[in-house]
Amino acid sequence: MRPSPAQVQRVAEALVERLVKAKQLEPSVPEEKIRARFTAILTQNFDEEAEIERQAMVEAERLVRQGAPGVRRDEVDLRRVEQLVKQRIAKAKGFAL
């Protein structure tokens, strides 16, 4: 389940706050700009993951429809096929799941 924009923003705020407090980040620009950038990066990451999931679902359905010799369609676990295809697509794109 994808987090809401408000949840993503709260995570970005918490990250910036903790990094500054731990002195791992010394802001050279206003913290608001940093929070906005973290929010954008997190949102982009969730968008990429959603696209990978969509591609995996389409490809898994195609693979199950095509079938494999000696395998009956009712014996195939579509969710497992989706997971395997998703892992393959993510690996090809260099995306960590």
What would you say about this model in short?
The protein is mainly alpha-helical and about 100 residues long. It is about 70% helix and about 0% strand.
Topology record:
Elements lengths: L4 H17 L9 H36 L11 H16 L4
Helix pairs in contact: 1-2, 2-3
Structural class: mainly alpha
Distance between the termini: 14 Å
The total count of helices amounts to 3
The strand count comes to 0
Helical content, roughly? over 70%
Helices and strands, in order, run as HHH
Largest sheet features: none
Strand content of the residues, in percent? under 5%
Shape: elongated
Number of domains: 1
Q: Name the poorly predicted regions.
A: none
Q: How large is the radius of gyration?
A: 19 Å
Return the average pLDDT rounded to an integer: 90
Provide tags for this entry.
single chain, 71% helix, elongated, mainly alpha
